[in-house]
Write a structure and sequence with these properties.
Elements lengths: L1 E2 L5 E4 L2 E3 L4 H12 L5 E2 H9 L7 H16 L6 E5 L2 E5 L6 H14 L3 H13 L12 H27 L3 H14 L4 H13 L3 H19 L5 H12 L34 H10 L5 E5 L6 H12 L7 E5 L9 H8 L10 H9 L4 E6 L5 H14 L3 E7 L9 E4 L5 H15 L12 H8 L4 H8 L7 H8 L2 H5 L6 H15 L3 H10 L6 E2 H8 L4 H13 L4 E3 L6 E3 L2 H14 L2 H22 L5 H8 L3 H13 L3 H8 L3 H5 L5 H12 L7 H14 L3 H9 L16 H11 L3 H17 L3 H17 L7 H14 L2 H15 L4 H16 L4 H18 L2 H18 L2 H17 L3 H13 L20 H16 L1
Parallel strand pairs: 7-10, 7-11, 8-9, 9-10
Antiparallel strand pairs: 1-2, 2-3, 4-6, 5-6, 12-14, 13-14
Length: 944
């Protein structure tokens, strides 16, 4: 074990060794920085002595290397060799704290769950024990030290963002203050400190931080704050919706918290103590609890409160599934899978994938707004209850779901005291000087009675306190009796609708127009989308109207890392849709919405092939519900051209990162499209790829053959070439030669077309085919070319593919170099959330370590891979990983567990590394899920 992140040190076979005086330590650092790569003697001499080398410097260098070899070489998998006019230090990168730091950082950036990411960042930063090799002083060493400090700062900033997302504002505040003092011109750090201060209730300090930062930037750089910092400043002035109160006690350790995707509570939870207590009690006994009641009664808020209080019970956390944006029941399974960060598994439908994943989980699933999708929700919920014994479902719906064993808990309006308290709390958010005791006697109580104690109606009324007195609000609400007359539904539902109508009438004309139009969005939107689709005049005019709607509680603001997003509650959105129908412009706006998101998706598709891939991923994924709505509208009005443009823009940004649902859209539009359309070939290629991902090879072949041998245009998504799908099916079924012939021809075409992204893809597969044919050396040239071409594109996915390919063909002949390539491939894929390429790189690195590294380290990384494929849902890769685990367990002498996995592999028709070992045919064979659980449990024992 080597230490560079602080004083230089080494532990060999568990014992600390003396690595010598300063010059000898400098030689060790110089070789460790280029671990597993030969370093020419001249470079080593410069690194150690700079421009003042000693007489006969090569002899001195050889002496130092010889002493280091005597101390650390030939033990624990470490060796120092002379090679190519220089020296190379060979070791597992995970034995060097610097490389472990990079590995943990990459895992953190790839983690979907912010709590998990926070833990990984913390583990990475704990490896730093001080300034690296601070006692050494040469220009090269100083440059490396400065570079490492810069890298640590970037990681610390990433950690800060994650810690803020998981609510560790108070805990982070002292460190952020110190960091900004050390880096006084870092605007990202200033923004983080401002958010932490604000969310700890220190608004004045947050604004002062901005003022001081702006002054420093002007004085020292002559520059104004960046747009990003100014946006945070504006967010605080407007009222940060993610503000949390300072905790009453020190927060629990982050590592003790389960995964949870619930939104932060932006307002206090008032009343309902008996309801919450009842729900928590019933969740100890029943698998399904449904909260029912009229719209606006507070079902969602109560469910979220109960989930937060119950989270500690569930080792696998709490997952919220928001169903309100869905119009099609077929999307329910995909939406649940996406909330769980699952991809559809080979050979399974999407709902079967969900069940297969949840079968072994201890988790609370919150299904919100089920009433318009009762049949599909009932089918899925029934299956979860029947097959997943440790998964509990908490649902909200205006009526019961209708599943056996369902416990229905009707939610009543607030009592008068609770309603009054809620009104006062929300009124203070609009008017800081509001005091209930200063209001006319009975005015607030009258408001609460008029709206029947419905929380949504109370919040709408309280939002008017900025411009009205409570008496004014009460008088104006008197008109509710007249408004109720022609409204269908229960009296309470009539009260809510009347309150919404009243609130709508009090909007300005511009606000009314925008509010109605915003109902075209599904799930949320940002300012650019709102202005392009719905706006009139300048973008600032749209922003003014949105701010007015936020102030009046007609629109909710949701802060995000890079841009502010907004959403409209479902009851308000339904009201807005009715207003659009009254005006007869609903279809016009839906078409503008579809055109906007199609154009945006086309820009993203192009951007996914360049250096800005991560930016486009972050930009597009929050709008998945809008992409679905855009596609469904285009198809419903037979706008096949727009539907084709949209689906052929989605394979990389959505299909590889969100779900396989969009490949089904491609299949649907291909059925009605003209085969002569320029995008038809890409559409059937995408549809075929989706079938291939699902393990439906016959369907994949049929769809791919619809292209009739045509090749899609340059710039098509990497995964949407029909002939590639046919070649991949052949490769998967054992005909690597046919696949190789295809990709060799496609590589020539890509060179002729000067298409670097396509060339990297084809070279990647050429290397894979040679590895499959067991002649990996024949694929080295293609893989090296892939790395070179990919680096020229600066595209992270291409760079990941190139490095993975080269690592794969070198992993037997040069395992140390292959390990470094796999780690680089994983890091590149993680940086753009490309979970599939990240997973295969992580897996091959783990497999290589399983052969060459210490057992405890190999076991840890193999567990990481099991967990990764368990979540991503690719069973073809998981079975391959189980082969690697079986080989590893056989290596360390865990014979019984290795044999059990061997039997599971052979029973599933998979090749086993144990070959034809004799087995007990009377013993029950493990299923795939059981095999994964056995593998995980055995590996964890090895880690202890």
């Amino acid at each position: 074990m080597f230490r560079l992140l602080g004083d230089i040190g080494a532990d060999i076979d568990g014992e600390r060794v003396d690595v010598g005086h300063a010059r000898q330590r400098a030689v060790l650092v110089a070789m460790l920085i280029d671990l597993n790569r030969p370093v020419p003697s001249d470079q080593l001499i410069y690194r150690v002595w700079a421009d003042e080398p000693p007489y006969r410097a090569r002899n001195a260098l050889a002496a130092y290397v010889s002493r280091l070899r005597a101390v650390i070489g030939h033990s624990g998998g470490v060796d120092i060799k002379r090679e190519s006019g220089g020296y190379i230090l060979l070791a597992d990168p995970m034995t060097v704290d610097l490389y472990r730091f990079s590995h943990l950082t990459n895992q953190a950036r790839a983690a979907v769950d912010p709590v998990e990411a926070d833990e990984l960042f913390a583990r990475a930063l704990q490896l730093w024990r001080g300034s690296p090799f601070v006692t050494l002083d040469t220009p090269w060493l100083n440059e490396v030290r400065n570079s490492l400090h810069a890298e640590r700062l970037v990681v610390a900033l990433d950690r800060n963002d994650t810690a803020l997302r998981v609510g560790r504002h108070a805990e982070l505040l002292p460190e952020l203050t110190t960091m900004l003092a050390e880096h006084p011109l870092d605007e990202r750090l200033a923004a983080q400190l401002m958010l932490a201060q604000y969310r700890c209730g220190r608004q004045a300090d947050a604004l002062e931080t901005f003022r001081a930062m702006r002054e420093r930037l002007v004085d020292e750089l002559g520059a104004d704050p960046s747009p990003a910092l100014q946006q945070v400043h504006m967010q605080l002035l407007e009222g940060d919706p993610e503000r949390v109160a300072p905790p009453a006690a020190a927060p629990a350790a982050v590592s003790a918290r389960p995964r949870m995707n619930l939104p932060r509570r932006s307002t206090s939870f008032i009343g309902r103590d008996d309801d919450v207590a009842h729900v928590l009690d019933v969740l100890r006994e029943r698998s399904l609890v449904t909260l029912t009641g009229v719209g606006g009664v507070g079902k969602t808020r109560l469910a979220l409160e109960a989930a937060v209080r119950a989270e500690a019970r569930f080792t696998d956390g709490v997952t919220l599934v928001e169903l309100a944006p869905l119009d099609d029941g077929a999307a329910v399974g995909h939406t649940v899978a996406a909330a769980l960060h699952l991809q559809q598994r080979h050979g399974l439908g999407i709902e079967e994938t969900v069940i297969d994943y949840l079968r072994t989980k201890n988790l609370l699933l919150v299904l919100d707004n089920c009433e318009h999708l009762l049949d599909p929700v009932a089918r899925l919920t029934d299956s979860i209850v029947a097959n997943c014994p440790d998964v509990l479902v908490l649902a909200t719906s205006r009526e019961a779901i209708g599943v056996d064993g369902e416990h229905i808990w009707p939610i009543s309006p607030l009592s008068l005291d609770e309603a009054t308290e809620l009104f006062a709390d929300r009124a203070r958010a609009s008017r800081h000087d509001f005091a209930l005791e200063d209001e006319p006697v009975g005015a607030v109580a009258e408001i609460c009675r008029r709206v029947d104690g419905l929380p949504l109606a109370i919040e709408l009324a309280a939002a008017r306190m900025r411009a009205m007195s409570s008496l004014d609000v009460a008088r104006r609400l008197d008109g509710l009796r007249l408004l109720r007359g022609g409204t269908r539904g229960s009296p309470r539902q009539q009260s809510l609708l009347a309150t919404i109508e009243w609130s709508y009438r009090l909007l300005t004309d511009a606000e009314q127009q925008l509010f109605s139009a915003l109902s075209v969005f599904a799930g949320g939107f940002d300012l650019e989308a709102a202005h392009t689709v719905c706006g009139v005049g300048e973008e600032d005019d749209t922003l003014d109207s949105i701010n007015g709607l936020v102030e009046k509680s007609m629109v909710l603001r949701r802060a995000a890392a890079d841009r502010t997003r907004y959403t409209v509650l479902e009851m308000l959105r339904a009201y807005g849709r009715d207003r659009l129908q009254d005006k007869g412009i609903g279809k016009l706006l839906a078409s503008r919405h579809a055109e906007y998101y199609t154009t945006l998706a086309e820009s993203a598709a192009a951007g996914m092939h360049g250096p800005d891939e991560r930016m486009w991923v972050d930009r597009m994924l929050p709008d998945y519900d809008n992409l679905r709505a855009a596609f469904e509208h285009a198809l419903s009005v037979q706008d096949v051209d727009t539907a084709l443009r949209l689906v052929t823009s989605l394979p990389e940004v959505v299909h590889l990162r969100h779900s396989y649902e969009s490949a089904g859209w491609a299949e649907r539009v291909a059925e009605v499209a003209d085969p002569a359309h320029p995008l038809y070939t890409a559409a059937v290629g995408f549809a075929a790829r989706g079938a291939w991902n699902r393990g439906e090879f016959d369907t994949a072949r049929s769809l791919a053959k619809l292209a009739q041998g045509r090749t899609p245009a340059r710039g098509t998504a990497r995964v949407a070439y029909p002939a590639d799908v046919l070649a991949d099916v052949a490769l998967y079924e054992g005909d690597a030669t046919a696949s190789l012939l295809h990709y060799a021809a496609e590589a020539k075409r890509a060179r002729d077309d000067s298409d670097p992204i396509r060339l990297v893809w084809t070279l990647f597969y050429i290397s894979i085919c040679h590895a499959a044919l067991r002649v990996p050396f024949d694929g080295v040239a293609a893989a090296e070319e892939a790395v070179r071409v990919a680096d020229e594109t600066r595209n992270p996915t291409a760079r990941s593919m190139g490095r993975y390919a080269l690592g794969l063909v070198l992993k037997k002949s040069e395992p140390d170099r292959a390990l470094q390539l796999f780690d680089e491939a994983a890091a590149s894929a993680a940086s753009v959330r490309n979970l599939w390429w990240y997973g295969i790189a992580l897996m091959e690195a783990a497999a290589t370590r399983a052969v060459h590294s210490e057992p405890d380290e190999a076991a840890r990384v193999l567990v990481d891979v099991l967990d990764h494929w368990d979540r991503v849902g690719d069973w073809s890769q998981q079975w391959l990983n189980l082969r690697y685990v079986t080989r590893f367990l056989d290596r360390i002498g865990a014979d019984d567990d290795a044999l059990a996995l061997h039997q599971a592999l052979t029973a599933a028709g998979k090749e086993s590394p144990l070959g034809d070992v004799r087995v007990n045919h009377g013993q029950r064979r493990l299923t795939g899920v059981e095999a994964v659980e056995l593998a995980r449990a055995t590996l964890l024992r090895c880690c202890r």
